[in-house]
From TrEMBL:
CDD domains: SDR_c. InterPro entries: KR_dom, NAD(P)-bd_dom_sf, Sc_DH/Rdtase_CS, SDR_fam. This is Oxidoreductase. It comes from the Bacteria. Residues 12-192 form the Ketoreductase domain. Keywords: Oxidoreductase. Belongs to the short-chain dehydrogenases/reductases (SDR) family.
């Protein structure tokens, strides 16, 4: 994968959580292609090492940290390690997330509800707080939190995920107000139906398996049902999501904060 360069981020550094996943990796390529140093944080060390290896083609500084965003100590250690290795961080892409199981509300499992909230809300809070402290002390910067279109219009069978992403959009709005005096912009991103990728495959298979009135029992038919709900009649690409992150972090967005950018093909 080689990303095109448009916005210029030379001399800047971006920290990306969920950096081993599909959207994190595409965004790492986008920023590295535009000259930024990249710090990856993820639970999945093997996949993160693969992404770091791929980024060598751009000749920018890259660091990786094994980090569970649900543990505040892990997040603090990763931030201080990142600063030691790469110096000041300018952008934080708060992106690690978990989709949860797919189940009707009357059957949604308690333990998974807690897990989704822990990763997508408490984890996002830990990273947001650490980013706010670092960027405040550094004199400013930009944060993008990955929400989802499920945080705008919640889909069936995704009770915890929808709730968690509504929370991400809410935290973005408060943080944007709190951090504006420090020169820190905070925005969120709400993709929907992005693929190919792990979450796309997983959601079509699991929506089919639930056996609800909303989707067919065949995942291939579910794919088509979902694409038919998109005015542009296609999936969005990982690169199109990364483009949204680049815009929100860039100087071109210098008066934009507290905004939720929907990347949905018109849904
Ligand atoms: N792909 C989509 O269609 C889509 C649509 C809307 C929103 N999103 C959101 O985008 C973000 C990235 O999703 P993706 O599609 O790249 O999925 P992905 O599963 O490929 O990547 C998610 C990454 O987060 C990491 N992660 C999970 N829990 C973690 C934890 N506790 N600490 C650290 N890392 C952890 C995983 O190891 C994984 O590498 C998520 O927040 C997701 O909810 C994705």
């Amino acid at each position: 994968m080689t990303a095109k360069a448009t916005y210029q981020f030379a001399g800047k550094t971006i920290l990306i959580t969920g950096g081993a996943g599909d959207i994190g990796k595409a965004t790492a390529h986008r920023f590295a292609a535009n000259g930024a140093g990249v710090v990856l944080l993820d639970l999945n060390e093997a996949k993160m090492a693969d992404v770091a290896e791929e980024l060598k083609e751009y000749n920018v500084p890259v660091a990786t940290f094994s980090c569970d965003v649900t543990a505040a100590d892990d997040v603090a250690k990763a931030f201080s390690g990142a600063v030691q290795q790469l110096g000041q961080i300018h952008y934080v892409f708060n992106n690690a997330g978990y989709q949860g199981v797919f189940a009707k509300t009357d059957e949604y499992p308690e333990d998974d509800f807690q897990k989704v909230i822990n990763i997508n809300v408490v984890g996002v809070f830990h990273v947001l707080k650490a980013a706010a402290q670092h960027l405040r002390d550094a004199g400013g910067g930009a944060i993008v939190n990955t929400a989802s279109y499920a945080g705008v219009v919640s889909p069936p069978n995704m009770l915890a995920y929808g709730a968690s992403k509504f929370a991400v959009i809410g935290m973005t709005q408060t943080a944007a107000k709190d951090l504006a005096p420090y020169g820190i912009r905070v925005n969120s991103l709400s993709p929907a139906l992005i693929g190919p990728g792990f979450m796309w495959t997983r959601q079509t298979e699991l929506q089919a398996a639930v056996g609800s009135q909303y989707f067919d029992a065949n995942p291939k038919v579910v794919e088509q049902q979902m694409i038919d709900s998109v005015p542009m009649r296609r999936l969005g690409s990982l690169e199109e999501v990364a483009n949204g992150v680049a815009f929100l972090m860039s100087e071109e967005a210098s008066y934009i904060t507290g905004f939720n950018l929907e990347i949905t093909g018109g849904q």
